[in-house]
Amino acid sequence: MIRQRPTRWALALGLLLVAACLAIWAVQWNSEEYAVYEAAIREAFSGEDVSYYVILDTTQPVGRFGVSNFHSQRLGLPFSARASYTTRNLFRFHIPPRFRLPHPFTMVSQEQLDKAYHSGQIDPPNALDLRALLRRSWGVITLSRVGFDLGGKHAVVYAQLTYCGLCGEGTYLYLSKETGAWHIVGRAGTWISYADCWGHDPATRWVLFSDIICVVWLLMPSSSPGSLGSVSVSSSACRGH
């Protein structure tokens, strides 16, 4: 029995090393993950009135324990994609700014957003600049890590759009790779909220009503692959006027 202990320790150590290597491999950034990001942003958060993107510089999944059973069933997620998503989103990661998007973009930190959202009597210049960028976009885009199925042909990502820190929506996006390009084929909303972001006066409430309708459209079921992108024909959700 004593002679078998070194063998057992060596086996246990080997298994730990294999698990560590698999974990490192699973969380590495690659070109396919950015291709999914770019397709999600292009199809979900672009429109005629969007000329700029503001993206949070860290990943932020809706939860730390993967996609819920309800959302998995609604999207028809393969088990491998769900497991991949869970593994990649156990921790938050800084997102390298490697996007190739149809419009310019800026990566911002949560600290910068807090300064822009919670204005004081004297706003710092960078907070004013950030607010101006937000008005050129639909708001701040927040992304999770991407989960892939074993064949690398299907992917799931959590995408969140917020405007003033109080209004916005969160959605799981299910994408499929067809003829070499990723496209959204399904979505399942997780939350939606609306607030009067920038202190609009009562005379402009009728404009805000169209914004509410637009946000509702973001979560309405649709069979078209780029269903979120269809809201570009109307007023964008939670925009300042």
Report on the structure:
With 241 residues, the protein is of the alpha/beta class. The chain has one domain (30-233). 37% of the residues lie in helices and 20% in strands. The protein has helices spanning 4-27, 31-44, 69-75, 79-88, 110-117, 125-135, 205-219; strands at residues 53-56, 105-108, 140-143, 147-148, 154-162, 168-178, 181-193. Strands 1, 2, 3, 4, 5, 6 and 7 form a seven-stranded mixed β-sheet that branches. A hairpin with a 5-residue loop joins strand 5 and strand 6. Helix 5 packs across helix 6 (125-135). The longest helix is centred in the first third of the chain and has 24 residues, at 4-27. The termini are far apart. The model is unreliable at 200-212 and 222-241 (pLDDT under 50).
Proportion of residues in helical segments: 25-40%
Largest sheet: 7 strands, mixed
> Which term fits the overall shape?
globular
Q: What is the strand tally?
A: 7
Number of helices: 7
Give me a quick take on this structure:
The chain has seven helices and seven strands, in the order H-H-E-H-H-E-H-H-E-E-E-E-E-H. The protein is an alpha/beta fold.
